[in-house]
Amino acid sequence: MLIALIIVSIILLLISYKYYEINKSTQETLLLLDQKQKDVDALKQEIESFDFENQTVNMALSIIQKNEMLEKIRRKITKYSSQYEFQSCTRELIELDLLVFETLQLDKDRDTLKLFIEKSNRDFYSKLNSKFPNLTNNEQRLCTLLRLNLSSKEIANIQNITEKSVEMNRYRLRKKIQIPSSESLTEYIKSI
Asked: How does pLDDT run across 106-161, given as a tens digit for each residue?
């Protein structure tokens, strides 16, 4: 009877040990799966963020190219209107110049780009606001465009201001957020 009790006890110990090992293995597998899912979610978010940034840069470059082309057309119109003395031709060229100028002034593309940038950079805006709560909307927009690695010329074209104005805005922003002149403003903004 004692031998049977010892054998039953050993069998119960083996069964409970096996159950413990299986349970432990299941828990480890579940933790591993949970970690893998978190990694996949983080990777998806990173891909979406990269895609938004790519689309934003492409949209900005499209606006820049369009504006540069319109500026070239305006210069040619001005050149031809000063060369020819024909009354009707000059009038037509002036009307065409005015049309191109009005097209350059349209803010529809800029508004679309602004909305797209704001949508794709919500996390960046919240970090920027928490770190520098006193930035104006224009300064925040400049930070976003700098984060996209756009040059001063490209930013000027998008915002329809002069390149000198962009440089002055960059200088003021640098002073406001207290970045030393030895450090790149663009790289600092990217690190936020």
From this structure: 556 666 776 667 666 777 888 888 999 999 988 988 998 888 888 898 888 777 78
Helix (H) or strand (E) holding 95: helix 87-105
**Residue showing tokens 């002034």:** 105
The CATH homologous superfamily for domain 107-192 is Response regulator (3.40.50.2300)
What pLDDT digit, counting tens, does each position of 21-72 carry? 988 988 998 898 889 899 888 888 777 767 767 777 777 777 777 777 878 8
For 160: left if phi > 0, alpha if psi spans -120 to 50, otherwise beta; the answer is: left
Domain segments of the chain as ranges: 59-106, 107-192
What span, in angstroms and rounded, lies between the C-alpha atoms of 184 and 93? Answer: 45
Output the pTM of the full model. 0.51
Quote the tokens at residue 116: 């797209």
CA-CA distance, 56 to 109, in Å (whole number)?
12
